[in-house]
Amino acid sequence: MGLIQKLKNKNVFLDTAPLIYYIEESPMYSPILNKLFSENSKGEFLFQTSVITLLEVLVLPLRQNEIQLVEQYQSILCNSPSFDIFDLNIEIAKKAAGFRAKYGLKTPDSIQVATAVFCSADYFLTNDIRLKAVQEIEILVLDELIKR
After folding, report:
1. Distances (CA, A) of 124 to 105, 113, 116
2. In this predicted model, what pLDDT tens digit does every residue of 39-50 receive, in sequence order?
3. Among candidates 108, 111, 97, 105, which has minimal Cα distance to 132?
4. Which of 1, 43, 64, 88 is deepest in the core (most CB within 10 A)?
5. Edge-to-edge order in the sheet of strand 83-86
6. Which pLDDT score is estimated for 1?
7. Secondary structure element (H or E) that encloses residue 108, with its range
């Protein structure tokens, strides 16, 4: 079964790195990410993420005063009908603490994973191989996907 077929009608939590690779047109990841974002925009599956992603993607463009890039990130994350963004809440914070304790994740990673689990995502798309240790959700790592 191909990746797109696997994701059909599912909720895919998008970690920060894949979004950065997509927006900044990373040559290594563009083929797979262009396909994923295209299928997402057609409604084949839903992307989900947390406000942590918004925070992380805006730092460098704000530091470099790249207002167009800031607006592009905000538009995708905050205005796309095929993208849900979740706020941090008490339940997610508790889950994140549990993931930090269980897996030794950094705080942002634990919040991302906890949000994905909280919002019932089917998959977590990242490029952080360390997150493969998490058992509560299926982790999809870009580097592994492009090697297939």
Report:
1. 15, 8, 7
2. 999 999 999 999
3. 105
4. 88
5. 83-86, 46-50, 11-14, 123-126, 138-141
6. 61
7. helix 107-118
| Measured CA distances, 136 to 30, 52, 102, 106, 107 (Å) | 28, 20, 11, 17, 17
Phi and psi torsions of 48, nearest 5°: -130, 155
> Cα–chain-centroid distance for residue 25?
16
What's the Rg (C-alpha) of the chain?
15
Name the pairing type of β-strands 11-14 and 123-126.
parallel
Cβ atoms of 124 and 140 closer than 8 Å: yes
Q: Is 42 exposed, middle or buried (0-12, 13-18, 19+ CB in 10 A)?
A: exposed
Tell me what pLDDT residue 111 has.
98
Distance separating alpha carbons of residues 135 and 145, to the nearest angstrom: 19
Q: Kindly write down the DSSP assignment for every residue of 32-100, as one continuous string.
A: HHHHHHHHHHTTSSEEEEEHHHHHHHHHHHHHTT-HHHHHHHHHHHHH-TTEEEE---HHHHHHHHHHH
Complete domains list, the chain, with CATH: 3-140 (3.40.50.1010)
